Amino acid sequence: MKQFIHEMTEKILNGGKIAFDEAMKIMSITESDVESLEALYEGANEIRKKFAGNKVDLCTIMNAKSGKCSEDCKYCAQSAHYHTGIGEYDLVDYDQVIERAKEMEREGAHRFSLVTSGRGVDGEEFEKLVEMYGRLSKETSLKICASHGIISHEQALRLKGAGVSMYHHNVETSSDYYEEICTTHTYQDRLDTIRNIQEAGMELCCGGIIGMGESVEDRVKMAFEIGELGVKSIPVNILNPIKGTPLGDLELLSPVEALKTMALYRFVIPDCYIRYAGGRMILGELQKIGFRAGVNAALVGNYLTTIGSKIEDDIQLIRCEGFDI
User: Fold this and answer.
1) Residue 195 assigned as binding residue
2) Binding positions for [4Fe-4S] cluster (predicted)?
3) Is 69 flagged in the annotation as binding?
């Protein structure tokens, strides 16, 4: 297996592409095969150095509207279909937004995104968001991102015009498994929004969640499907099961399985940001291995409904691994 990984690494470094069956073979590495795992991590790191450089991209999010979501995504604490006890509130005001954005800017984040619960946004709520983004782009030096669910082409153009450079919209899992985690909208609905984002000229941040009961084949298929979308940033979330949701009693994905998946994503999509996102705290001290295994971006600070990390701690860790901030 170790020799096979070296061959795959050289193939990618020389401009080739990994095939699906080759990716599946890599994912068959067992946790006890330490030498092969180390070869995988080293290979992903070499690919990252060649195709994505040495700079780590740090983004932070603000939960700008919480709970009461009409959708039934089985992993999500914000769905109105489940009783999880999370706080619920309507769209925050701009004073709260600019205070948080400037704090994150001072602490060293590169990007700032507002995230709202719900299928999408429209009417007065959307107009308020457009105004907020216009002001944020003038009053901070942060790159402005947005995450507001399903949007139309016209809405995408409005957000782009207000200064939003990147829109976040995950596929969440493979197309085959999607109906197992959500029934209130389709995988195609997500692809339609992705097309709207790209046609409006925004960069795309699109990843998913691993550890939702999907098969290894689903996990690999998601990588290949994302790779066909022209993605700039791939957030890889590790499910942190939340009581009250249908997935609340699932066992945590093993840290090695999570790291192996992230390393594989670097083989499949060599030149993008592979971004640590929600759930990475599950890895504990092993987080540093990810930065040696293809990861070159991170969601820092708190997440939507769970506690994240202190930005200064992340920056210290990243610098210790030899990256530029």
Assistant:
1) no
2) 69, 73, 76
3) yes
